[in-house]
Queue: 2 jobs
Job 1
Amino acid sequence: MSLPFIIIAVVTLFAAAAAMSLRNLVHCALSLVVSLAGLAALYLTLDAQFVGFAQVLVYVGAVAILIVFAVLLTRSDAIPNQAILAPGWVIGIVVSAIVFTLLGWATLNSTGLPKEVPPVPVVTVKNIGDALMTQYVLPLEVIGLLLTAALIGAVIIAMRDDTAKTKMEDGGLQMEKASGPSSILHPPSSPGGAR
Amino acid sequence: MTPLQGCLLVSALLFAIGLAGAVTRRNAILALVGIELMLNAANLNFIAFWRYGPHPEALSGMMIVIFSISIAAAEAAVGLALIIAIYRHYRTVNLDEIKDLKG
């Protein structure tokens, strides 16, 4: 337990707690960036340089920007004037505390954890590339396919489909003339109906 | 306390913070952020066991973290696209107000 590790861990945990508890969502996103950068620094203290820089590139670079864009696109950047926690939040906090207690107890009382610290492993980017291209080449290909499918799917889900919507509205109008309500999601409330 | 136990404690606390946020916040984006924090806690565990385990030259822990980071990126993209689609439909991302399927 070196001093840099403790400092970085405290900063990371405080930033994570702030990201989960602040009211303003933009502040939450910025705290999340601090927390993810702190995690990257933790990886660097653990001699995993490649993973640390991948964390900076992917999380601090891409995922944080995605989250900020989602916050702005859904107009959640205004400070909400209602409660930010769901009803029944006490149960959630209690469950989280139980999970942490259990994990901490298991960590502190486990006898199977290795005690001695092995020497610093020499891991160059060449080693990682060799492993990715030989032993882990199948997972690499699967990940590439998964990323492609996920990104195309994300674009399709988030795409505004104006043409389909107007077509559906036209069809819906005709159907409404023919046989009453067409939308399942928002049925017109019938006056005096039993609700 | 050994360095490995310190890493595991930090990771457990990060996981608990993420879990608490994911189940208590009303905003869907914040729930997704909590899930990201939990994934990161798991990654920290993998790196800690890779570094302090008996065979750090085997690269297994590092490889699984690299793949996990890329899967988390795909998950964040799809999740946020779903949140944007839900916002377009309901004009809100408050999880308590999205209850069309609630029995």
Job 2
Amino acid sequence: MLVLVKSKTNKEKNGEIMRNTKSALRISILAIAALTLSVSTSGSVSAAVKAGAACKKAGQKSGTFTCTKVGTKLVWKANAVKPVAPVVPVKSEYDLQIAAWLKDCNNTISVIIGYGAGGATDIWVRNKANYIQTLTGAKVNVTNLPGAGGSLGITKVTSAKRNGCTIGNVNLPSALQYLRPTSSVTYNKESINFIATSGFSSNALVVNATSAYKTVADLIAAAKAAPGKINAGSDGPGSDDAIAYYDVETKAGIKLNQVVLDGSAAKVTALLSNQIDFFGGSVTGVLPQLTNKQFRALCVYTDKAVKFIPDVPTCVSQGLNVLSTNLWSLMMAQGVDEKRRQAIEDLMIKIAENPAYVASADKLGIETRIFTSDALSEEWTRQAVLYKGILAKI
Amino acid sequence: MLGFGHILTPSIILYAVLGCALGMITGVLPGFGPAAATGLLLPLAFVLEPTQSIVMLASIYYGSMYGGTITSVLLNVPGEASSVATCIDGYQMTKKGQAGKALAIAAIGSFIGGTIAMIGLVFSSKLADLAISFTFLDMFGFSLLALTLVVGLTGDSMIKGLISAFLGLFIGMVGLDIYTGGPRFTMGLPELTDGISFIAVIMGIFGLSEILESIGGKKQPDFSGNIGSVLLKWRDFKDSFGAIMRGTGIGFFFGLVPGSPAAACSFTSYTIEKRISKTPERFGKGAIQGVAGPETANNALGISNFIPLITLGIPSSATMAILLGAFTINGLTPGPTLFTNNPEIAWGLIASLGLSNVILLVMSLPLVRVWISILRIPTMTLYAITLAFMTIGAYVISGSMFTVLTLWVSGLIGFVLRRYKFPMAPAALTLVLGAMLEKSFRTALQINYGDFGSLFSSTRANVAYALIVLIIGSKIVTAVRRKMNPKTQSSAQKSLNDTEEVRS
């Protein structure tokens, strides 16, 4: 028997499944018929209740009939049909606000990116813009206005009309450059109206794959043995990586030799050619080299592991209590109606919660972590205090 | 073979043709360079197939290398940064009725340079190590050598040439000093933080000043009766062959080394051609080698620029950064694993560049006649159209009127310099090389803990220093000889005057 069962062909199996299905169907049909019968039977029980038929107690109700005294007789009378209001979908405050926003903007939203085309910020914002377009049906015009570390774009957006039709990007910590004593930037935190953000990338401490430094401890030990002789690639004084190096130096009790390189491509080239020993750069930027095993990440400057490189420990867990991250966010001019701002923020949160969006951001090497405008404002203040403190010491 | 098999589908060929045509138009429109065009079309990467979008963007980039020549030759307006050197002799050829020849040799040189560079690209994985073996010290040596060649561009007056060179250096210094984080000559203007737009300045001092001078001159040039032949003679090709071969080598080398600006590459080719020429006095007055060399170098660089991108994931220019963006949008990782994980993309890209090279040659040569017919437009109308396009182009660079202002101010400065017979080329060269020299010098010193002695620790840099000594030495010897034998000097002056007459 066992042999026979085992030797059943697929065709036989399918036949069996069909037979089982047919039986199930028969049972279902019987059950439905029984139910129908019971309902019709109950209907016949109450068949005596009809308009004009005699009833016994005034006020007694049966279905849509009420026992009513007409003249001297008690008879069943159909209930008065209450006029039913047409079903109008109730629009939420969100829907109303978004509709008003789009109407004011002639269904066209302008998005200004303070960086050039092709970079991480540009791609992140454009991806977001595609989703704004899909979810609202609005036409979204994206313009790049690169210059002065993103500040030209911020200035343009903060001076736009207060209707929310122009939104732009603001990156933290690079937007903190207004705190530098030499800065010619005209905006500050108060001139920026935050919208929730979701783009997040931790900075990572990376070495060449051929480097002798396998752990953070190796690097710190080498720096202690040769003060000022370990070359760290940097974007220059006041940049976020230089600030992080200062924090590393203070907390690890070491002295590094910061080598200023013009942009991330120059840092990557210098590390590939072993002209520098390591650098701290955003995981998004170094992901190609990490994937290709040209670089090795010793640790990530964030509170928990980064999803794209889950095996890399946090710097904190390696005894180096340094945090350095990048947040990509959207913002608009101050003075936009708060209800409208909140609706736009809700829209951004909806986008950030969309699994397809998260998958597309993952492709860019950018994590999706939602920060409301209040949380972003708090984070801004926290980083500004830290930044000002370190700038004062430098 | 996998690449060609993958690329030779009707849709990919269509995207390559479309990209080439768009690239060519991009190159022709002054100021509207490949970075602007690819940036504008980058969103296509969200909707097209990875190979389609990457092939199209790469074709736009490469097409602009061909297209940039046209306005440089016909109107003295560089269509994009790498065509600046072409203006010097290309426009003089137009004035002599040889616009067709200039455009034809540029197309042929570009094809040869691009094709040879393609062979290098096929072996790109072998060249990746070479690309990153160049240190900041080497780069310092090379940029110093290139800057020394500026001596060859000074023209009749060394003093005026040097003033022009210093002007270029000064303009290049404006902006944020990344080494100290402090602003330099920015006058508190945030628009100047990233420096002055190179292409706006170049359009101003070359193109706009030319227009201003012509309008202000006694006799306006009339090109309509002086279009000349478009056919190249065997002699033209023979004269240009060496320049094309050297241009290929120079372009390939510059493209291979990350961080070498394209404009520096075409200038280096130009100055080398002038230096080794038996008739250097013909340069600046319509020498065909002065067009063939830089244009070939420009296209060889266009191809070899892909080597650091696809083998190391390093973008060498703004356009390459945009292409890197197209890779990222499609979840692709450029680098050594691209050839193993996504061979259809890596080889498809290489094959598409080969295809683009052929498409562009086929497009360019028959179009030479069409392009030079632009010169039949009455000069003043042509100038008005050019000015309008330059202004729009300048606006497109940054999306702000500040760059338009930069163009106009540069035009006025160029006009004044022309009036007083200052050469323009040294300013353009130092504008490009100044930043490269400063960065390589300061970074090399930082890497070597501020030790000046380390500047002599690189063999490549030492070879460059030796060549600099030779160049300066030979210049001094020539000057001393001329001083001792005034007869030679007067005959040289005579030959110069003769060419001047031909020019006017």
